[in-house]
Design a protein that fits this description.
alpha/beta; Urease, subunit C, domain 1; six-stranded mixed beta sheet; 17 helices
Length: 563
Amino acid sequence: MVTTELAPDLILDNARIYTHGAPGSHTRALAIKDGRILATGASAAIASLRGPATQVIDLAGKTVLPGIFDSHNHLMQVGVKLTRIRLDECRSPAEMMELVRAKAQETPPGHWIIGEGWNEGNFTEATPPGRLPVRADIDPATDQHPVLLMRFFNMDLANSRALQLAGVTRNTPDPEGGEIGRDANGEPDGLLRASAKLLVRSLLPQPTREELETAIHLGCREMNRYGITSVIDPGLYPWEIAAYQRYYHARRAAGERVPLTVRINMMPSWHGFREEESAAELEARAHSLGIFSGLGDDWLRIGGLKMAMDGGTSSHTAFMYAPFEGEHTVGNFNRLDPATLRDHFRTAQTLGWDVGIHTCGDRAMDMVVDAFAAVAKDVPWADARHNVIHAYFPSDRALKQMAEHNIAAVIQPTFLYWEGDLIFRDVGEARAANYKPARKYLERGIVLCANSDIPSTVSPNPFPALYALVTRKNNLGHYIARDQAISREEALHAYTRAGAWLTREERLKGTLDTGKAADLIVIDRDYFAVPEEAIKDIEVKLTMVGGQIVYQADRIPKTESGA
């Protein structure tokens, strides 16, 4: 019998454990001590390590994978959203209105009512199906409350009371990089695109410290349900970073062995976001702190700087070479001046900051990658982990430069699955054939990271997303760029090891090798063996972070060795 000091705290046995997230890497048992993988191997070999206090979980043949690393996940924002009206499943503007009406009955007059997640692509019960909602759809719900209903990305719907408070009238000009929706008479219809969102959003009360810390707790719990053990939370403002630190240190001070049930990599917001921040203030954020990417520990770290170039395709705010389908001109909704890109990247590169930049349009992507490549030549940094976030439509030139300078593609297969049909509506068949081309990225040797970008999609669940990568089918069974499908192993790599590379944490997580963090998930069927169509239906039964169970769907009995 092994002494208590040397024995594992926990053994997982009778399982199919894919230590490297690859078909040939499975083993039968795994031992954990002090939150790390102590050993993996055959049941008998691992059983020989047991001590008098070792607990054993018999997984009854279930499958174990490394924990999911969601490399672009607004976890704190998800927690905030969970306290608001959930609009993801709404099938019509009328349904949205009824949810607002119900919320108004329990909200004091004058207080804001906020909802998130509507998607006109889900409006199958609207007339006509898929039409955009307007303020006339929601005004009947209340005239006592300002209401703001946020689309899943880059567009808001405000009621008449909210527009009145913001001073938005028929005479209000469109802000630079934005658009105020108007009806046939020129009156504001309640829709606010891109930078126009700030006309109303700037009036919203900022969450309190307690509300942000509650949001972190709720967000972590939501991610654990889906097997997510690490995230990169991008575009955080200073007070949000402070909230993460306070939450983390409070839990450590309370003696929590797992102070965060999701390991957090924080990306400070930089250029391309809040208009009220001057360029000088943003530059000071990178220069004056005296820190750079990587500061922190195994639980909470500073990542790269988050930038944003353009908007998105479904809101018709991405920067494209050709107009969107049904339009005649190319709109410019860019969030920063393309001429400044090289200067910003050079600043980051010189100071040791990685950069991740939101880029959706084909024209925007060429501009971004050209700037990255130019700076890489002028200011070499062999270990830079820069990345293009979204990376919808890469040109051959962009692919070549990304491969040459090790620029990663950070893509969202959740968009493929949940909103896939919208891409045909927005850019047509020809351009859709180059949408999130995972196979092209991998064939060029470009690091491919997969993630959800929740709450800009329906769910953070990685299994419909893995299904979309492997099959290139959306939730309606339609193919999107079918030739860009990748293998199950490649898809899982993008959701585990690639994220660890992006944050320079390859030695900590991404696989279940000896010495690495015991971050893992137990699922109800074998990801590598089930038919392709069943991948999307895989369910997480248990999530473990640092050797501690943080989510459990079913009771799995533990036994103490007593040996």
